[in-house]
Amino acid sequence: MTVFGALQALRDKPIPSPRPKSGYRDVPIAFGGIANAEALVRASDYGLAGENFYASERNPPYYHRIPGSIDAIVMREGAARRLRDVNAQLAEANLELFIFDAWRPQAVQIYFHDKWLPAELKRRDPSLSGEALLTEVETYWAAPSDGADAPSPHSTGGAIDLTIRWRGAEHLWMGSLFDDASTLAHTAHFEDAATDAAFSFSNEEARANRRLLYWLMREAGFASNPTEWWHFSYGDQMWAQATGAPAALYAGAEFTD
């Protein structure tokens, strides 16, 4: 038995080929459902560690506090309870979840979708413009909420950005920065046979750790964003599309500190 104990089996279990995530914002929302009445709760109240990535200056590749960001990490109660259960499993191997972001103000979504990422993509490829540029942006940043029927995932409180770390210590190696806007961030990137062409301890470790995070979150009822290894959701439209639920549980939510 390794240091990961029973969790080692999840590190050895391949991530399946992803399902397309396009069109998820057409999924209906159960506005009148019991779940949508859930409050936004603080992650810390459920024993969940984290630091809002966008409210810090230690946040590569940005290195500045993002306009409109907040210090608090809050999410829907249903998501928090499920993450607490994941933490209980991780505790057996002296591990825990670490959250980068959960409910997100629209000002942050607008900044990245409309300003930062388009400018960065054009810096790297000046030929990008129009629909081609928008398509590339929305591979990694959802459009800001467009009315009650199409909230951006993080505005619902059901989308969570997170990783795994040793309890109170360093993060497990996942193979890329958080918020890497490239194929390196794709959840199943290291499952591709092409990445095994050159033997690499780094790639094998990243693959095993992504598998662990993926399966723990899947078994807790979350859906994975196929283009972001850190992004999981419960109850939002992306979750509903991925799981085949007839409707999303959560609409957009507001947080008042």
Order of helices and strands: HEEEHEHHEHEEH
Q: Percent of residues in helical segments?
A: 25-40%
Helix/strand structural class: alpha+beta
From the 3D structure, determine the CATH topology: Muramoyl-pentapeptide Carboxypeptidase, domain 2
Percent of residues in β-strands:
5-15%
Low-confidence stretches: none
| Terminal Cα span | 45 Å
**pLDDT averaged residue by residue:** 93
Q: Report the radius of gyration as a whole number of Å.
A: 18 Å
- Placed side by side, the strands forming the largest sheet appear as 2-4-5-7-6
Morphology call: globular
Number of helical elements: 6
Number of strands: 7
Going by CATH, the architecture would be 2-Layer Sandwich
How is the biggest beta sheet arranged? Answer: 5 strands, mixed
Notes on the structure:
With 257 residues, the protein is of the alpha+beta class. The protein has a single domain (5-243), classed as 2-Layer Sandwich (Muramoyl-pentapeptide Carboxypeptidase, domain 2), CATH 3.30.1380.10. Helices cover 29% and strands 11% of the residues. It contains 6 helices and 7 strands. It has helices at 8-11, 77-91, 106-124, 130-140, 201-219, 237-243; strands at residues 40-42, 49-50, 74-76, 95-101, 159-166, 223-224, 231-233. The strands form 2 sheets. The protein has a 5-stranded mixed β-sheet with strand order 2-4-5-7-6, with helices on both faces. Strands 1-3 form a two-stranded antiparallel ribbon. β6 (223-224) and β7 (231-233) form a beta hairpin. α3 (106-124) packs across α4 (130-140). The chain is globular and about 50 Å long. The relative contact order is 0.20. The mean pLDDT is 93.
